[in-house]
Design a protein that fits this description.
five-stranded parallel sheet, 5 strands
Length: 203
């Protein structure tokens, strides 16, 4: 079944275990992988135009979400070409990062259908109470001095938590609309438990 799938797309909010999930999958599956965060970094180095976002935008979550969606669509245009190239080269692929259900549906499914490929598409969200998410971010700062969250004050992180929850709400709404699976981290005892559930379903 997995050899016929060839493509796994994992999107979601920030700090929900997407990258760790991909690492665990790669231990079990002979797939290549692509992180849209890594692609975004490379695009920046190559001076590819992208919609600008900054921590100042966190003070207005609705505007932040609009800009993030616009930027993520720009990155998706490049991601899509990478996916097409991988399929043409017969290379099974896992893509992880800032994916959105409506972008996936409108841009890539027709190509996949022609090539008789049915992708696995899933999204991971964080619908924990806001205060719990804020404390989670603070804890990540304390435990990992190299975490990118350390660049920001606790006040800013509280605003980012609001943005992240708004993104999760939007992802859930779109996932339901486009009939994709989504997993809320707050419905599991731990990230490990959620990841094992996802892996079993994929396998």
């Amino acid at each position: 079944y997995m050899n016929k799938t060839f493509l796994i797309l994992i999107g979601g909010a920030s700090r929900v275990g997407k990258t760790t999930l991909v690492r665990k999958l790669l231990e079990k599956l002979p797939y290549y992988s692509l992180s849209t965060d890594r692609l975004k970094y490379m695009m920046g180095k190559l001076n590819v135009p992208l919609t600008k976002t900054s921590s100042k935008d966190w003070y207005c979550p609705e505007k932040w979400l609009r800009d993030i969606r616009k930027r993520d669509k720009e990155i998706w245009c490049w991601t899509k070409q990478y996916i097409i190239s991988s399929i043409i080269e017969n290379q099974p692929l896992i893509v992880e990062g800032n994916l959105w259900p409506d972008y996936v549906d409108e841009d890539i499914l027709a190509f996949l259908k022609v090539n008789n490929i049915k992708p696995i598409v899933l999204f991971i969200t964080d619908m924990m109470p806001l205060e719990a998410t804020i404390e989670k971010f603070k804890d990540l700062k304390r435990r990992d001095p190299y975490n990118w969250l350390n660049k920001y004050s606790d006040e800013l992180l509280a605003w980012f938590a609001k943005c992240n929850k708004l993104r999760s709400e939007s992802l859930i709404k779109l996932a339901k609309e486009y009939n994709y699976c989504f997993y809320n981290i707050n419905e599991y005892i731990s990230l490990d438990e959620m990841q094992e559930v996802i892996i079993k379903k994929i396998m």
